[in-house]
């Protein structure tokens, strides 16, 4: 898993639709696709996360199983 720190890494995550895991104080705070960013915040999914407090990690998407009955 790769930590995203720089703008070009966030641009690549947007362009290549990489799943991003958001960590705050070492605990999972959210995850999803990067929707945009500025100097202060990064939008992941539908929420804004501060660049100062959060860590953004490129990760594989969560695995799910759907049973069709």
Instruction: Please provide the ordered H/E string of secondary-structure elements.
Output: EHEEEEE
CATH topology type: SH3 type barrels
Describe the strand arrangement of the main beta sheet, using strand numbers.
Answer: 1-6-2-3-4-5
Helical content, roughly? 10-25%
Strand portion: over 45%
Q: How many angstroms separate the termini?
A: 35 Å
User: In CATH terms, what is the architecture?
Assistant: Roll
Q: Biggest sheet: strands, sense, closure?
A: 6 strands, antiparallel
Number of strands: 6
Mean pLDDT: 92
CATH class: Mainly Beta
Number of domains: 1
Total helix count? 1
Q: Regions with pLDDT < 50 over 5+ consecutive residues?
A: none
Write the layout of secondary structure elements.
Blueprint: E1 2-4, H1 7-15, E2 19-24, E3 27-37, E4 41-44, E5 47-50, E6 54-58
Antiparallel strand pairs: 1-6, 2-3, 2-6, 3-4, 4-5
Molecular structure report:
The chain is mainly beta and 69 residues long. It has one helix and six strands, in the order E-H-E-E-E-E-E. It has one domain: Roll (SH3 type barrels). It has one helix at 7-15; strands spanning 2-4, 19-24, 27-37, 41-44, 47-50, 54-58. The longest helix is centred in the first third of the chain and has 9 residues, at 7-15. The model has no long low-confidence stretch (mean pLDDT 92).
């Amino acid at each position: 898993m790769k930590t995203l720190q720089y703008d070009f890494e966030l641009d690549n995550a947007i362009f290549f639709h990489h799943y991003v895991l958001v960590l705050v104080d070492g605990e999972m705070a959210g995850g999803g696709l990067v929707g945009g960013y500025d100097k202060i915040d990064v939008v992941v999914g539908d929420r804004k996360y501060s660049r100062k407090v959060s860590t953004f990690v490129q990760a594989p998407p969560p695995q799910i199983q759907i049973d069709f009955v």
